[in-house]
């Protein structure tokens, strides 16, 4: 690995020496909690602090004894990929009482703990804040009762709290995503995809209940990700008479040869009078009105189960590291904060401001102020709801505008999961805007050959969950065939193009390794010259090293990595994982690195290698890819419509300014349309990568969590922000699912 950049800030400036940090999980379990615990422990140890587990949540803090256990580096090994919470979680009525909190304070003081990382929902975090506010008074009581010495009041004068939200419902205001939400979506989509095959076979209607007693996020995003016919959520109950409208929609879909219907119901779904809408009620309604063969599936706790997704592992790891940084920087006057995700950045927000806003959502729903409830959920939630309505509810042709514009959609470059979701979104939004939509098969090659045909609303039904590219894609570049492409554009009177494309599985291996002592796996990932997959995959899988083109390395770095692994094998952690981006170095090939590790590790560990290859491009798209492809494509098509209207004069489109050809992508916290000509200065065209890569700032986290001495640029760590003043803009939040 490359040597640390001397410009970056070393952790000696943020020493944890003399401090004790405790971490607990509270409330319902969520996939990714273990990754957060692991990150807190290893980051705390890295900066020189003592770190403790508190088993069984607040109950363990009240009971004390063996429930408070000092953590070691090795004690969180092999924890990253495990679902649930290995340190346990429990509801604790006693902690809600003053006497219970007094016991908890006594137990913490006995271990010298004055820094607390709490991973849980808003109730758990509210309890932590109350504990913090009462702390000095609790210590005074303990002195009066003779349970602690008088000088302990001064020595342990302040309790510092940092929260991380672990909740599969994504029901906490102030963060785009909570730990566990993405994994829960994976479970839901796996079930929906499986159900669709049997539903199509028998022309059935399925009514699915997903979790979300007070929040409809899982139901809404699942509906977007699978193209559900109808969704019912608590924040936005259906208008009166919805039963008839829903049945009309289901009937209309069957009329266009759709063999299945999917209705998704949040467990907390209500009507406009706050009366619950149950799955059984929906089923009986469909059977009575339409006579369709209808089944109910209640997913239940399967949504909490299974291994955490890569997204949740990375999110939780980043939050855990940020939580420790926040504790190191806190003072007696610093309010309790919660570590949140905004766009692709970790930020710190005042805990109680977020809790109060979360509680306001429920008050708005109780008061039947549903539009306000949706707004309070945040712009991401609003945008999801708006996009779903736009794509799911087809207007009669008589109600559609007529734009007289023709828009073509094509895929270029390598196939990528989510392409089909993007095409579906573009086609349906385009039709809703009144455009005539065309599909181009096989990229630019199909374009110049005339493989172009009109595509209708129903033609893209069921595309969301399909992998690969249903339109077909080739790496053929347009430069050699510009005249033929222009001829086809004139022939079909195409006014605008929407191009979806690019410049043209470590888990099971880790599980195998964890069952085998003293073995190192060398894995080659794809990515061309871009090391994103290797780096972020390494962070998600707990890799020991990840070699990439953007961070040059030499034989000394390889030697240092081998020595690091050799030392590691002498501890109780006797397995290793090394990732190599396919084009990281033309001489240090995967075979070379494998042979080097095999030779240098003789007598200490043995090595295995695996080239993942094109399996990385295969399979169904994840919920994130489906959702992101859908929303980014809808946004792109709306931009296309705006530009067509702006440039239409005298019966023709005159689009010759540089902003008429833009790339839509995520930059920091926003979705940005950037003229392609401006990208020249920011792009390394030889290696087909940007000159600056935001994710490179994540690489030190992987090294730190693998016990390398390195540096970390804390200048971008999230400083305390106020929720209301710094609410994400629509373009910011639309990045999140």
Task: Describe the protein.
This protein is of the alpha/beta class and 737 residues long. Helix content is 39%, strand content 17%. The longest helix has 25 residues, at 623-647. The model is unreliable at 1-12, 505-515 and 722-736 (pLDDT under 50). α12 crosses α13, α14 (419-432) runs parallel beside α21 and α18 (532-541) runs parallel beside α22. It has a 7-stranded mixed beta sheet, with helices on both faces. Strands 7-8-6-9 form a 4-stranded parallel beta sheet, with helices on both faces.
Main sheet record: 7 strands, mixed
The geometry reads as globular
Q: Indicate the percent of residues in helices.
A: 25-40%
The computed structural class is alpha/beta
For the largest beta sheet, what order do the strands appear in spatially? 3-2-1-4-5-10-11
Q: How much β-strand is present in the residues?
A: 15-25%
Rg calc: 27 Å
Give the strand tally: 25
Uncertain spans: 1-12, 505-515, 722-736
The DSSP helix count reads 23
Intertermini distance? 33 Å
Mean pLDDT: 87
Could you list some keywords that capture this structure?
737 residues; 23 helices; alpha/beta
Summarize this, please?
With 737 residues, the protein is α/β, with parallel strands linked by helices. It contains 23 helices and 25 strands.
Helix and strand arrangement:
Elements lengths: L19 E6 L7 H14 L3 E5 L2 H7 L4 E3 L27 H13 L4 E6 L1 H23 L6 H5 L4 E6 L15 H22 L2 E6 L6 H10 L3 E3 L9 H14 L5 E6 L12 H12 L3 E5 L11 H20 L7 E6 L2 E6 H16 L3 H8 L1 H14 L13 E7 L6 H14 L3 E5 L2 H7 L2 E3 L27 H10 L4 E6 L4 H9 L4 E7 L6 H10 L3 E3 L7 H14 L6 E7 L8 H11 L5 E6 L11 H25 E2 L2 E2 L8 E6 L2 E6 L7 E2 L4 E2 L8 H7 L24 H4 L4
Parallel strand pairs: 1-2, 1-4, 4-5, 5-10, 6-8, 6-9, 7-8, 12-13, 12-15, 16-18, 16-19, 17-18
Antiparallel strand pairs: 2-3, 10-11, 13-14, 20-21, 22-23, 24-25
């Amino acid at each position: 690995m490359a040597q640390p950049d001397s410009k970056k800030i070393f952790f000696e400036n943020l020493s944890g020496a003399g401090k004790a940090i405790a971490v607990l999980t509270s409330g319902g379990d969520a996939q990714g909690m273990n990754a957060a615990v692991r990150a807190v422990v290893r980051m705390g140890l890295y900066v020189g602090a003592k770190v403790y587990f508190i088993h069984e949540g607040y109950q363990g803090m009240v009971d004390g004894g063996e429930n408070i256990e000092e953590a070691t580096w090795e004690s969180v090994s092999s924890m990253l990929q495990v679902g649930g919470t290995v340190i346990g979680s429990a509801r604790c009525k006693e902690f809600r009482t003053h006497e219970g909190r007094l016991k908890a304070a006594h137990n913490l003081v006995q271990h010298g703990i004055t820094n607390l990382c709490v991973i849980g929902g808003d109730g758990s975090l509210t309890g932590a804040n109350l504990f913090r506010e009462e702390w000095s008074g609790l210590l005074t009581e303990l002195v009066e009762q003779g349970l602690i010495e008088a000088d302990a009041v001064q020595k342990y004068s302040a309790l510092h709290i940092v929260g991380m939200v672990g909740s599969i419902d994504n029901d906490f205001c102030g963060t785009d995503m909570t730990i566990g939400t993405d994994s829960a979506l994976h479970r839901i989509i796996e079930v929906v995809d499986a159900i669709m095959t049997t539903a199509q076979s028998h022309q059935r209607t399925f009514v699915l209940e997903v979790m979300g007693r007070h929040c409809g996020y899982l139901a809404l995003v699942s509906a977007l990700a699978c193209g559900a016919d109808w969704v019912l959520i608590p924040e936005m109950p259906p208008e009166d008479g919805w039963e008839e409208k829903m049945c009309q929609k289901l009937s209309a879909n069957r009329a266009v040869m759709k063999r299945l219907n999917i209705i998704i119901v949040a467990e907390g779904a209500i009507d406009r009078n706050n009366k619950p809408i149950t799955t059984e009620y929906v089923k009986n309604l469909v059977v009575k009105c339409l006579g369709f063969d209808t089944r109910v599936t209640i997913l239940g706790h399967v949504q909490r189960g299974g291994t955490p997704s890569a997204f949740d592992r990375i999110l939780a790891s980043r939050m855990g590291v940020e939580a420790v940084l926040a504790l190191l920087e806190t003072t007696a006057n610093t309010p309790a904060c919660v570590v949140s995700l905004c766009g692709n950045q970790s930020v710190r927000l005042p805990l109680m401001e977020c809790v109060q806003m979360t509680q306001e959502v429920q008050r708005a729903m109780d008061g039947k102020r549903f539009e306000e409830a949706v707004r309070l959920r945040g712009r991401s939630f609003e945008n999801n709801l708006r996009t779903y309505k736009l794509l799911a509810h087809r207007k009669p042709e008589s109600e559609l505008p007529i734009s007289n514009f023709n828009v073509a959609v094509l895929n270029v470059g390598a196939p990528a999961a989510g392409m089909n979701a993007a095409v579906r979104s573009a086609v349906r939004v385009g039709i809703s805007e009144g455009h005539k939509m065309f599909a181009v098969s096989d990229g630019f090659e199909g374009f110049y050959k005339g493989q172009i045909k009109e595509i209708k609303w129903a033609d893209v039904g069921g595309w969301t969950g399909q992998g690969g590219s249903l339109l077909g894609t080739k790496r053929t570049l347009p430069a050699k065939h510009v005249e033929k492409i222009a001829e086809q554009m004139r022939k079909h009177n195409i006014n605008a193009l929407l191009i979806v494309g690019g410049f043209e599985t470590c888990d099971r291996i880790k599980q195998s390794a964890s069952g085998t002592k003293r073995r190192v796996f060398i894995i080659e990932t794809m990515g061309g010259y871009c090391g994103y997959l290797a780096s972020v995959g390494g962070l998600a899988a707990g890799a020991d090293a990840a070699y990439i083109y953007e961070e040059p390395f030499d034989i000394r770095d390889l030697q240092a990595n081998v020595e690091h692994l050799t030392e590691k094998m002498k501890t109780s952690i006797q397995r290793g994982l090394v990732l190599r981006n396919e084009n990281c170095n033309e001489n240090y090939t995967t075979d070379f690195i494998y042979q080097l590790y095999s030779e240098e590790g003789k007598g200490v560990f043995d090595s295995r290698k695996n080239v993942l290859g094109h399996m990385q491009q295969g399979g169904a798209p994840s919920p994130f890819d489906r959702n992101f492809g859908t929303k980014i494509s809808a946004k792109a098509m709306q931009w296309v419509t705006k530009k067509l209207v702006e440039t239409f004069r005298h019966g023709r489109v005159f689009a010759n300014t540089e902003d008429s050809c833009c790339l839509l992508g995520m930059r920091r916290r926003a979705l940005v349309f950037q003229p392609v000509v401006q990208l020249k200065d920011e792009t390394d065209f030889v290696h087909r990568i940007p000159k600056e890569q935001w994710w490179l700032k994540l690489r030190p986290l992987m090294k730190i969590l693998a016990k390398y001495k390195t540096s970390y640029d804390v200048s971008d760590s999230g400083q305390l922000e106020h929720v209301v003043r710094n609410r994400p803009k629509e373009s910011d939040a639309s990045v999140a699912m």
